[in-house]
Every structure is written in structure tokens, then in C-alpha cells.
Specification:
The complex is a heterodimer of chains A (about 120) and B (about 110). By secondary structure, chain A is mainly beta. Chain A contains no helices and 12 strands. In chain A, the strands form 3 sheets. In chain A, strands 2, 5, 6, 10, 11 and 12 form a 6-stranded mixed sheet that branches. In chain A, a hairpin with a 4-residue loop joins strand 8 and strand 9. Chain A is globular and about 45 Å long. Helices cover about 0% and strands about 50% of the residues of chain B. In chain B, the strands form 2 sheets. In chain B, strands 2, 4, 5, 6, 9, 10 and 11 form a 7-stranded mixed sheet that branches. A 4-stranded antiparallel sheet of chain B has the order 1-3-8-7, with no helix packed on it. Chain B is globular and about 40 Å long. The chains are: A mainly beta (about 120), B mainly beta (about 110). At the A-B interface, strand 5, strand 6 and strand 10 of A face strand 5, strand 9 and strand 10 of B.
């Protein structure tokens, strides 16, 4: 079975400071990993993904994430936070070895609050 | 990427009635999914909408309550039947392509009185 954990319900960061939103996962095989962002009253927007290759993945809006296989983590980062980054962030995982249809497991979400 | 639209964007319904939510994708996609989300919380997969065959439902969701149609590769509907206040939620449609990424619609906010 696959699972994903976002240990922080909320992360507060000052504008201009670096931000990190944590995610750890569990799969039987190798993972597909994703980050999505949800702004108020909106659907989820795709930020970035890791399938294979370079462990550092760059995505939309200046975000990046680092895949760490030994720590089974995929933390989302940004060097300098903007107030407009304030939103709900979801990490998601799919086991590459999962057969049948493509089922993705989403984390519980982390609310990012960037303080001006 | 895929652009997904949903209709209606929101609705207020009386208990015992049914609501059909439409999901339109701007390109042909292999997989379409329906999720439920309480505001500020995680997503719960209701079912995978398969083109040309019955939907695949997750544990706790049944076809009689949430019938799904997928008549072609760009369109799907989800019906919430015999609604109760417990069905009040945000319903999200998503589409997946070969690159494993899912793209989401803006959601339908449903309130059942």
C-alpha cells in the first residue's frame, strides 16, 4: 500500500525568507511524486513532479523539491517566499509498480502562510 | 497540460434531490477521476471514470449513490443522488494523461439543505 504524510498542518514564514513544506512517503517500489497547490475556492494546480532522474526538481512559480530516497522524503522548497504563495499545498504519491489504473494518494495538506 | 472545466461551479440543493456535475476536458485524456474534498482538507477519491465501461469505485462509494458517465475521452458526469446534508462538499474532477500528472477542474461546491 502507498501512503504520504505531511507532518505540518501549517507553516508560517516571513516574506522573503526561504520556505520548506515537508512530505514523506511510503511505497512498495519506486515512487512517482507530485506537489499541488490550492488557492482559496480553486481547484488544485500542478506544481512539479518527480518520476526519475535528477533528485532536484524545479517547478512552477519558483518552487523546487528534492527527492531523497534514503529518507523517503520529497520536501517542497522556495528560496524566497511571496505573500502570494499563501495557499494549501498537497503532496501526492503513486507507486510505479501499482498495476491497473492510475491511483494517486494525496497527503492531508499543509497550509502555508507567508507573513508580510 | 489539460484545461478542465466543471459545471455548475456551486449549487444549493434540497435533501432527497439529485445533482449532476459535468466535467469537460480540452483534449482527449485516458483517465478521468472524481474526488470529494471538505474545505481545507485532503482529497478523497470517489471513482475512476473509464471510457466505454463502468466506473471503478473506491471503498465506501457505490454506483447507486454516485453514478458516473464517461461517454467519450473528453467528458464525464458525476451524479450525487438522493442527497443528504452529509453530501455537502466540494467535488473535483481531474484528468490524467500519459505523463502521470493529474490536472484538476475548479471544483463544484455543493450545499445540501
Amino acid at each position: 500500500a502507498q501512503s504520504v504524510a505531511q507532518p505540518e498542518d501549517q507553516v508560517n514564514v516571513a516574506e522573503g525568507n526561504p520556505l520548506t513544506v515537508k512530505c514523506t512517503y511510503s511505497v512498495s517500489g519506486n515512487p512517482y511524486l507530485f506537489w499541488y497547490v490550492q488557492y482559496p475556492n480553486r481547484g488544485l494546480q500542478f506544481l512539479l513532479k518527480y518520476i526519475t532522474g535528477d533528485n532536484l526538481v524545479k517547478g512552477s512559480y519558483g518552487f523546487e523539491a528534492e527527492f531523497n530516497k534514503s529518507q523517503t522524503s520529497f520536501h517542497l522548497k522556495k528560496p524566497s517566499a511571496l505573500v502570494s504563495d499563501s495557499a494549501l499545498y498537497f503532496c501526492a504519491v503513486r507507486d510505479m509498480q501499482a498495476g491497473g489504473y492510475q491511483k494517486v494518494t494525496f497527503g492531508t495538506g499543509t497550509k502555508l502562510q507567508v507573513i508580510p | 497540460s489539460a484545461v478542465i472545466s466543471q459545471k455548475p461551479s456551486r449549487d444549493i440543493c434540497q435533501r432527497g434531490t439529485s445533482l449532476t456535475i459535468q466535467c469537460q476536458v480540452d483534449s482527449q485524456v485516458t483517465m478521468m477521476f472524481w474526488y470529494r474534498q471538505q474545505p481545507g482538507q485532503s482529497l478523497t477519491l470517489i471513482a475512476t471514470a473509464n471510457q466505454g465501461s463502468e466506473a471503478t469505485y473506491e471503498s465506501g462509494f457505490v454506483i447507486d449513490k454516485f453514478p458516473i458517465s464517461r461517454p467519450n475521452l473528453t467528458f464525464s458526469t458525476l451524479t450525487v443522488s438522493n442527497m443528504s446534508p452529509e453530501d455537502s462538499s466540494i467535488y473535483l474532477c481531474s484528468a490524467g494523461q500519459g505523463d502521470e500528472t493529474q490536472y484538476f477542474g475548479p471544483g463544484t461546491r455543493l450545499l445540501v439543505l
